[in-house]
Amino acid sequence: MKINILHFSGTGNTKYVADYLGEKLVNTGHDVKINSIDTNPTIDEDVELLILGGPIYAGNVPEKMIRWILRNVQDKNVNCIVYSTSAGLKNANGVDSLAKKLDKKGYNVLAKETYVMPRNFYFGKYPKNTTQEVQDMITNTNKQIDILVDRLNKGKLYLADKENKGVLGKDLLAETFSVMAKFMGKNFSVDEDCVKCGICVKNCPEKNIIFDDKKEIKFLNKCMLCTRCIHNCPKNAINYKNNKYAQYNLNKYIKK
Questions:
Q1: Which pLDDT belongs to residue 90?
Q2: How far is residue 1's CA from residue 47's CA, in Å, rounded to a whole number?
Q3: Which residues form the 4Fe-4S ferredoxin-type domain (predicted)?
Q4: What pLDDT does 53 receive?
Q5: What's the pLDDT score for residue 245?
Q6: How far apart are CA 121 and CA 112, in angstroms?
Q7: What is the pLDDT of residues 152-185, one digit of tens each?
Q8: CA angle, 225 as apex, 224 and 230 as ends, to 5°?
Q9: Among 7, 94, 169, 239, which residue is least crowded by beta carbons within 10 Å?
Q10: Secondary structure (H, E, C), 28-93
């Protein structure tokens, strides 16, 4: 089966799911192509299964992803699977927004999956997960994906429940959070540890970080609060409200 997996991933959780899922599908004989929407990919004309995934920000997938789907995913009568990664199942309904968008475009939604993954946004009241918690989450996510692939290969995936709860409200929340993020993003700054390597400038999904005329790092007003800049900085030199945070690197927890 020809499968396209498209995702948006701020700091690696959603990408991990896409890569692990893709590996399992390839190992069972499928033709799989994986792309981030950061690269503005196209969906293959002869695709037989589309898999689309994103993280949960404030109860829904990011507004950036909603915009991308509405503008770039063409109407098509093809099967699809949608998934989200979340720091807690109480936000699981965010995946319904993806399902409804694709359902309206003619796709047949076979499954709506939510994977509980480690927290990468731990400002204020949100604590960082312990090493054991992270390892347990990865193990459970892998098992959940294994079950999904097994059901797909055995033809046991059927049309998912079309009752997508509270999607309008969640989409409005995504838009509201997107506006809030632009203001909250002004609280980012770099400290004296910054070596001006430009990794944050290159990797920012909204092109919100630039070098100014003095070759200093500058944060604009387009932030989406993915925190990719903090966690990818090789010197951990990016602060939020002048506070330095422990970096999240999923790769160090993955067993090779």
A1: 61
A2: 8
A3: 186-214, 215-243
A4: 96
A5: 86
A6: 24
A7: 999 998 776 666 666 777 778 778 888 888 888 8
A8: 130
A9: 169
A10: CCCEEEEEEHHHCCCCCCCCCEEEEEEECECCECCHHHHHHHHHHCCCCCCEEEEEEEECCHHHHH
Q: State the CB neighbour count (10 A cutoff) for residue 128.
A: 16
Quick check: 102 and 133 in contact, CB under 8 A? no
User: Locate tokens 């004309």: which residue?
Assistant: 45
Cα-based distances in Å from 53 to 58, 74, 144: 16, 17, 15
- Return the pLDDT at 215: 92
For each of the domains in the chain, give its residue range(s) and CATH number, in order of start. Answer: 2-167 (3.40.50.360), 187-241 (3.30.70.20)
Give start and end residues of each alpha helix (H) in 73-223: 95-104, 131-153, 167-184, 199-203
Exposed, middle or buried by CB within 10 Å (0-12, 13-18, 19+), for 218?
middle
Q: Which residues contact 204 (CB under 8 A, 6 or more apart)?
A: 228, 229
Please give the Cα distance from 77 to 108 (Å, whole number): 7
Reading the block at residue 17, the tokens are: 């799911």
The Cα-based distances of 33 to 38, 79, 114, 131 in angstroms read: 15, 16, 21, 31
- Are the C-beta atoms of 57 and 125 separated by less than 8 Å? no
Assess contact for 6 and 51: CB atoms under 8 A: yes
Residue 154's pLDDT is 94
> Residue 3: helix, strand or coil by DSSP?
strand
**DSSP helix, strand, coil percent of the chain (3-state; round to 5):** 40, 20, 40
Identify whether the C-beta of residue 221 lies closer than 8 Å to the C-beta of residue 209.
no
Distance CA 128, CA 110 (A): 33
Measured over the CA atoms of residue 57, residue 60, residue 64 and residue 69, the dihedral's sign is positive
Tokens representing 209 are 């970080």
